[in-house]
Amino acid sequence: MKMRSDSISILAGLLLCSCLLLGDAVMADSITLLSSARRPQEASIITLGDIAKLEGTEAMGWAKLPIVETDDRDTVHITIAQVRNRLDEAGVHWGRVNLHGQVVVVRQDLARSAQPPAAMQSMNIHRDAAAISRKVHKSPVPVDENARTLRGAVLRFLLAKLDTTVDSIQVVFDANDDRWLDSPLDEIRYEIKALSDLNMSDRIDLEIRRWSKGRPGERRLLKVKPLIRCTVAEASMNIPRHSTIQPDQIKAVETWLTPSQRTIRLQPVDVVGRVPVAPLRKGTLFRARDIRAVQLVDRGDSVVVRCLVGGAAISLKARAESAGGLGERIELRKGRERETFMAVVTGPGEAVIDMENPVAGS
After folding, report:
1. Which of 26, 90, 176, 253 could make an SS bond with 133 (beta carbons 3.0 to 4.6 A apart)?
2. Residue 357 binned pLDDT confidence (cut-offs 50, 70, 90)
3. How far is it, in rounded angstroms, from Cα 106 to Cα 24?
4. Domain 295-354 top-level CATH class
5. In the predicted model, what is the mean pLDDT of the chain?
6. What's the pLDDT score for residue 239?
7. What is the percentage of the chain residues whose pLDDT exceeds 70?
8. Which residue pairs, CB below 8 angstroms and at least 24 apart, start in 39-47?
C-alpha cells in the first residue's frame, strides 16, 4: 500500500509540473511568422513587425527589431532560424515569448511604392517630417573626438581603424541616426564592429551593440561615409603612353577621398620614373593601375642573380620566365631545373634574393 501511495504522489507531482509548464506556455506571448509579406520599394530594413503576427505586450515590444537589411529589390526569404538568432542577439526572454512559423517570403509592394507626382500628393506634415529624417546629410557633420556620445565613440573607432588623425577625417552620417548618435554614453557602453573591410569600402556598415550594467542589449546597423584628407599625385600636363614620367609632369595635390579611393591613389614619389600604360590627361589623379615600372628584364633574358647571405653574395645565372621592371618580382629558372624561384629586379639583366629577408612566395 505504501508503494502504491508513493507512486500516486509522484504521478500527482508530475501532473502538477506539466500543468504549470503548460500554463506558462499558454500565458506566453506569441510571435507567428507570416508565410508572405510585402515591403515598400524604398524600404531597406525589414523589421519583425513587417513579417510576423505579434500577440501580447511582450511580443509587440519587438515589433521594430530589424531582422534583415538589404538593398536588393528582389524577393527576400527569411527563415525562422534567422529570426530566432536576431531575437537571441537582442536578448529576448524565451520564457515569455513563443516563436512559430517556417519561412517568410518578402516581396516588393509595387502598389505602395508607386507614388503620384508631388503636385498631386496631399500634404501630410508627419509624413513629410519622416521623409526628411531619412535623408543623408549632404556634408560631413563636425564631431568632437573627445565627445562622450556614441557619435564621438564612432569617430574614435574610425580614427584607429583607418590610421588617420582627427584633422584629416570627415564623416557623413545618415540624418535619421542623429538623435541616437548624440545620446550620452553615461552608464551605457557601445561595442562597435565593422561588417566590411574599412579600407576597401566607400560607405561602411558598422554593427553597434549596446551594453548596460554589464549586460548585452540590442544590436543596430549604422552606415557612415568617411572622407580622408590625402596628398596624391596629379598629372600637371598630358602624358603620352610609354614615356618615362618626369618630376615636372606631376604635382602634389590635397584632396578628400573615401577609404577605397585612398588605397589606389599614389603619391608623387611613387610615380616619378614610371611609365603610363595608357595616355594620361592633365588633371588625372594617378592610380596604381595607370602606371608600371620601366621594363628592365624581358621574358627569356639571361639574368645574373645575386643571393645575399649575411655579408656574403653568391651569383648564379638563370633565365627569366616573366618580365619586370625595377623593384618588381620576376620568376626565374636555373638551367633545366623544373622548379622556378622568385627574385627582385635591381637593374637591366640583374636581380637579387635576400636569403635573410626572402621575397614572399619565393
Report:
1. 176
2. low
3. 32
4. mainly beta
5. 78
6. 92
7. 78
8. 39/106, 39/107, 39/108, 39/109, 40/108, 40/109, 40/112, 40/113, 41/73, 41/108, 41/109, 41/110, 41/112, 41/113, 42/113, 44/69, 44/70, 44/71, 45/69, 45/221, 46/70, 46/76, 46/78, 46/106
Domain covering 229-292 in this structure, CATH number: 3.90.1210.10
CATH architecture of the region 2-111: Sandwich (2.60)
When pLDDT is averaged across residues 173-200 and rounded to a whole number, the result is 82
Amino acid letter, 199: N
CB contact at 8 A, 46 and 65: no
Above 90 in pLDDT, residue 312?
no
CA–CA separation, 234 and 360 (whole Å): 31
- What residue spans define the domains of the chain? 2-111, 150-228, 229-292, 295-354
The position carrying cell 627582385 is 344
Taking residues 326-337, what's their average pLDDT? Answer: 88
What is the pTM (predicted TM-score) of this model? 0.49
Length of the chain: 362
State the Rg of the chain over Cα.
Answer: 32
SS3 136: strand
